[in-house]
Amino acid sequence: MLGSRTDLHIFDAGSVNGTRYCNEILFPYVRLFRDAMGLQFLFMDDNAPCHRTVAAKQLLESEDIERMDWPARSPDLNPIEHVWDFLGRRLAARTLPPVTIRELRLALQDEWAAMP
């Protein structure tokens, strides 16, 4: 968006629930993108359970962020699924694939930064 991208956000251990999604993604990232784009901003997510919680819905409504209607399980239509595929292929092609969580985190960050 806007010819750029955010840093890769990697959740620390634990489940991603509606509260974490709001606090770690919607509030710090999505709200700022909406502010940069203006009222024509249309938000797209992938219908994951944490995206559909009451907390997420209330936060989006309170920030006047319109959510795109999206068919469940539509990876071919969701551009981010192609990004995850690209990152997965890049990790698999490494001479020394990551073995630990720390190595995986660093490798993902490296590949994300190197992505065109």
Description:
The chain is mainly alpha-helical. Helix content is about 50%, strand content about 5%. It contains four helices and two strands; from the N terminus they run H-E-H-E-H-H. The protein has helices at about 20-35, 55-60, 80-90, 100-115; strands spanning about 40-45, 65. A two-stranded parallel ribbon has the order 1-2. The model has no long low-confidence stretch (mean pLDDT about 85).
How is the secondary structure organized here?
Blueprint: H1 18-37, E1 42-43, H2 54-62, E2 66-67, H3 79-92, H4 101-114
Parallel strand pairs: 1-2
Helix pairs in contact: 1-2
Average per-residue pLDDT, rounded, comes to 85
Which segments are poorly predicted (pLDDT under 50) over 5 or more consecutive residues?
Answer: none
- The shape, in one word, is globular
Strand content: under 5%
For the sheet with most strands, the description reads:
2 strands, parallel
Termini separation: 14 Å
Radius of gyration over all CA atoms, rounded: 16 Å
Decide which structural class fits the backbone.
Answer: mainly alpha
Oligomer: single chain
- Number of continuous helical runs: 4
Q: What spatial order of strands do you see in the largest sheet? A: 1-2
Q: Order of helices and strands, N to C?
A: HEHEHH
Q: Strand tally, please?
A: 2
Helix content: 40-55%
